[in-house]
């Protein structure tokens, strides 16, 4: 079995975990998908498979080996592999999903990792979408009290602090679901962030760490416009629908792979949520 390690959000992605959308459907678990359900029919299996394939192609084009978690019929959100486990420099950490509709995802992820976790979340709740292992020595954990609560965030932060890391626990409103709806890294010195919403203290802290932000307006962030995945080497995966942001990223000299992911962003998750990096090269 491989020893998975990730020590940044921006190192060259060599291995990544995804889960095909065979059983995906929208269920009302967050503000974003509730809005979707009010105005749309469930997406077709064919359309979902086609969009997911675009994502997988982008990941492979970026040089990553794509590993597949077998989907289960009773777990429609397994496709968002970001949330059930997060890989750290010391190995994978098993999260503790908050929603009853998603808790069963622990079973498949335990099997995938053959139960070899560095740590297992056991206090409160902890979801991978709230965790950014930003760069060696620095991480941030969002604590909305919803998907990740203070107890869950502090337990995770404690494990990294014990290794000498600086970990910021960042409170934000539950309305925004996960911190990765408001903030993601593009390159070691560049992030995308919803400045309308994030605490100015957080932005100043980023700046102190040499990280500049491209601003994404509230409306775009709620359409998962901030939810990008860095591939390393100046490349990112960002959904086709994020046209304004993608132009801004290209203007920064980045190469943007832009799969159409509209059916998944309508459920509350984009490229960052649909992927769990297993290995990055620093
Ligand atoms: N890391 C993320 N932002 N994940 C998105 C998860 C969306 C999913 N529909 C849920 O409600 O749980």
From TrEMBL:
Transmembrane segments: none annotated. Its EC number is 3.5.3.6. One of its GO terms (molecular function) is arginine deiminase activity. It holds the Pfam family DDAH_eukar. It comes from the Bacteria. Pathway: Amino-acid degradation; L-arginine degradation via ADI pathway; carbamoyl phosphate from L-arginine: step 1/2. Gene3D superfamilies: L-arginine/glycine Amidinotransferase, Chain A. GO terms for biological process: L-arginine deiminase pathway. It catalyses: L-arginine + H2O = L-citrulline + NH4(+). This is arginine deiminase.
């Amino acid at each position: 079995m491989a020893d998975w390690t990730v020590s940044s959000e921006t190192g060259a992605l060599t291995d990544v975990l995804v889960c095909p959308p065979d059983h995906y459907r929208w269920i009302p678990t967050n503000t974003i998908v509730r809005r979707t359900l009010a105005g749309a029919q469930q997406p077709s299996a064919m359309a979902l498979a086609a969009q997911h394939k675009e994502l997988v192609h982008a990941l492979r084009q970026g040089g990553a080996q794509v590993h597949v978690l077998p989907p289960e019929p009773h777990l429609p959100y397994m496709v968002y592999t970001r949330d059930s486990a997060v890989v750290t420099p010391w190995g994978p950490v098993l999260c503790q999903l908050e929603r009853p509709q998603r808790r069963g995802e622990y079973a498949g992820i335990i099997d995938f990792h053959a139960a070899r976790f560095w740590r297992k979340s056991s206090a409160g709740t902890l979801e991978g979408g709230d965790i950014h292992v930003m760069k060696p020595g620095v991480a941030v954990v969002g604590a909305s009290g919803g998907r990740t609560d203070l107890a869950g965030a502090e337990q995770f932060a404690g494990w990294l602090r014990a290794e000498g890391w600086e970990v910021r626990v960042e409170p934000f409103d539950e309305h925004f679901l996960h911190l990765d709806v408001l903030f993601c890294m593009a390159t070691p010195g560049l992030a995308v962030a919803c400045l309308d919403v994030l605490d100015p203290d957080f932005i100043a802290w980023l700046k102190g760490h040499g990280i500049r932000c491209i601003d994404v307006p509230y409306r775009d962030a709620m359409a998962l416009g901030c939810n990008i995945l860095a591939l390393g080497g100046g490349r990112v995966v960002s959904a086709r629908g994020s046209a304004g942001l993608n132009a801004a990223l290209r203007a920064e000299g980045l190469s943007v792979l832009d799969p159409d992911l509209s059916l998944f962003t309508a459920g509350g998750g984009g490229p960052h949520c649909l992927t769990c990096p297993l290995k990055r090269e620093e």
